[in-house]
Amino acid sequence: GARLRRALEPRGQRRVAPARPHRVVMLAFPDAQVLDITGPLEVFARSARWLRDHAAMSTPPYALELVTREGGLLRTSGGLKLVSTSAGSVRAADTLLIAGGIGYAAAARDTALLEWIRRRAASATRVGSICTGAFLLAAAGLLEGRDATTHWAYLADLGRAAPGVRIE
């Protein structure tokens, strides 16, 4: 208990709870991969539980939100349905994540969705993608001159789709 809390505190300082949770927004689309959505969100959720339980943080460190263009039920590539909020209701994201999955190609042609990604990314502290979500970031023009990666089977396709990106 107390020993672990002391170990987590910087020397000579008390850990200060954030004034507000860090907002993590996961953008998904029809036929996104459920693991690409839930895996990263679970990492943030589990970290928040650990900090609550072991670092005595009174303010939750993360607020998680799954969004889609229209909101409502999202059918993932495996058939599982998840509940999402409308992307239009999101005014800000500290961390913006873009899911991957077999529906990426259709999503990367959705000009309204790409514009939403550009607007949210402009004010986000951190922007990332999971697997083929990189294609949406590329289509939105956010990977130009940067390093990027995706699933090994899609590396060549990403290189063709985004010639100004250094593929890792």
What is the element layout, followed by pairings?
Layout lengths: L1 H7 L13 E6 L6 H21 L7 E7 L3 E4 L5 E6 L8 E4 L5 H4 L3 H13 L2 E4 L4 H6 L7 E2 L6 H7 L4 E2 L1
Parallel strand pairs: 1-2, 1-5, 2-4, 5-6, 7-8
Antiparallel strand pairs: 3-4
Helix content: 25-40%
Structural class by sheet pairing and helices = alpha/beta
Name the beta content range.
15-25%
SS summary, helix count: 6
Give the spatial strand order of the biggest sheet: 3-4-2-1-5-6
Labels describing this entry:
168 residues; alpha/beta; six-stranded mixed β-sheet; two-stranded parallel ribbon; 6 helices; 35% helix; disordered N terminus
Can you offer a commentary on this structure?
By secondary structure, this protein is of the alpha/beta class. About 35% of the residues lie in helices and about 20% in strands. It contains 6 helices and 8 strands, in the order H-E-H-E-E-E-E-H-H-E-H-E-H-E. It has helices at about 1-10, 35-55, 105, 110-125, 135-140, 155-160, and strands at about 20-25, 60-70, 70-75, 80-85, 95-100, 125-130, 145-150, 165. The strands form 2 sheets. A 6-stranded mixed beta sheet has the order 3-4-2-1-5-6. A two-stranded parallel sheet has the order 7-8. The chain is globular. The termini are far apart. Residues about 1-5 have low confidence and may be disordered.
Short account of what is shown:
By secondary structure, this protein is α/β, with parallel strands linked by helices. The protein has helices at residues 2-8, 34-54, 104-107, 111-123, 134-139, 155-161; strands at residues 22-27, 62-68, 72-75, 81-86, 95-98, 126-129, 147-148, 166-167.
